Amino acid sequence: MTETTAEAEVSPVDYATAPINASLTKEDKIRFLRQLYSIRNFERVALKHYNEGKMAGFLHLYIGQESVAVGTCSLLGENDHVITAYRDHGHALAVGMGMKECMAELFGKATGCSKGKGGSMHFFAPDKNYWGGHGIVAGQTPLGLGLAYAVKYKGLKGSALAFLGDGAVNQGVYYECLNLASLWDLPMIYVIENNRYSMGTSLDRSSALKNCLAERADGFGIVWDIANGEDVYEVRAKTWTAIERAHNESRPTVLEIDTYRHYGHSVADAKHKGGYRTADEIEQFKNRHDPVLLWRQRMIDEGMVTAEEADAINKETQAEANAAVKFAEESPIPTVEAINQDVYFEVDRQTEAGRTGRHFFND
Amino acid sequence: MALIEYRDALNQAFAEEIERDPNVFLIGEEVAEYDGAYKVTRGLWKKYGDKRLVDAPISEAGFIGMAVGASMLGLRPVIELMFWSFCTVAYDQIINNAGCVRYMSGGLINCPIVIRGPANGGTGVGATHSHTPENWLANIPGLKVVSAATAYDAKGLMKTAIRDNDPVMFMENTLLYGEKGEVPDEEYTIPLGLADIKREGSDITFIAHGRAALTSVKAAEQLAHEKGIQAEVLDLRSIRPIDEDAILRSVSKTHRVVLVDENKPFCGVSAQVATMIQEKIFDELDAPIRRVCTIDAPAIYSPEVEKLQLPTVERILEKALTIL
Prior knowledge:
By secondary structure, chain A is an alpha/beta fold. Chain A contains 14 helices and seven strands.
């Protein structure tokens, strides 16, 4: 495919020189490119097999937003935690989950990251401080607050990043969280990934305050900022400011990152070009604002990679995604017995408490 | 053994578990400085401070969801709902998050929280403050549901609930907070899922939980006194898990059963227990299963009439006599 159409927007600030970016090595920058391509290709391959009928449920693709997950998650330390909503594949891969376990989950296999019990919207990796993948819009926002609360309770220098969409900011629970985060000085970072559409409804039609969603944090005494999601450097620089605020002051931040999804809310409306958004708009973002192509070009311009090397990374990650599909296809489905497992801790471990009383009513 | 109020038995459980485990903290509206709306947490804030006793804004979805998130990282929050009726505004957090996170993560994530507070009516506070949500919550695999009738049970079950690695919904009762009961001086716990025979009997079984178990004991004593009929009273104590063995054992002994339940009858706990008995030991029954539930309407305010809406001794006896 042709990947030479990207044109970087001229920004008044070059965030490449921000301290958090100035220290990046060549390997770091190439790793980001690889991660961007990994997410892109994972999603492309998943879409192909979804359309072949090999998966159930919803598939909320992250294509177009990759720079947000890659930029923010590249900054996480030992005591920084991540939680997100249902568009969770990108964050999962960015924190280091493997394509195989993720793809197998989409295929509903026992080898999936959630043993085939969670599906597309429910990826988890607690060992990587990644707390999911949650299906209810804004339902994850107080859970993220709890992660921040626990970090502070334990006296650790850390933070919690909770991702939410522009649709989620209209849910009431989010405002309860902003109040609590500010009231209790929690190291909480809400990252609004503003992709301009809450399902099929544009920001113009869903939000009373249209120009800036993060600004609502003013009402809670919370610092906020807006970042251009096309630029990994800018995402990193502004997220790092929030992380430092969390670590050093134990204060929350709301960071709105402008981005765009190339596909539909889910695959259900993926080809719905003539309805809630125009084909021209989508094409413009694909051709001029694609964060993967922009970072690729930036890396070429900086002399980090040649075009050929970038193409090779693209191909390698595509091959990895295809291998993940093979792994998923060859994996077993969960057993029927698995339906009643992982419901209760005690039952699963056959402790004393598990032997008393009946938890299930289906036999 | 000391004779103490139900609220103080719970208070002892909290104090002991706070001291035992640094991850345990209590959170809710007015639980700290105000000592709790029903004084269940009396004195704890003064003794343990702001970290372990946390006053929350009126913000149930926010702080319950926050507690669920904190529990995923290993804390053990005990959440007070001023009334269990208010769980409705945090339903997403209780059901979709606390109830499902373990399953949807393939068992990777535990959610060791306790949500507690007064359920049920009887205090003239009207429909929105008198709900009995144990049946709503017991319908969610992943949640555990406990209902304590006595001070002894309240303390022993609460200590177990706090140590449990699953989300436990703990039903108390406003009308029971002042009731006194004997509580051992030494440490004890009661496993979840173990029913208790509150009164031995051979002629008929009353199955109940929470305050209805005490009403059933009163009815059984009156029945013995007036008719010489010995009713056994089985207190479920735990709705989920449920002690199926104890239910089947008692009914197989007496062959007659009245289910007494402060839930509404429609899809209530008693409906579940009746189905279980019918499916498992229909042949043991010498008479139809009878139920005495809260009359199926929103809680009426008028205090004298509300007492009649709940299961009464008279209604229990009336039903029992139809099958004796």
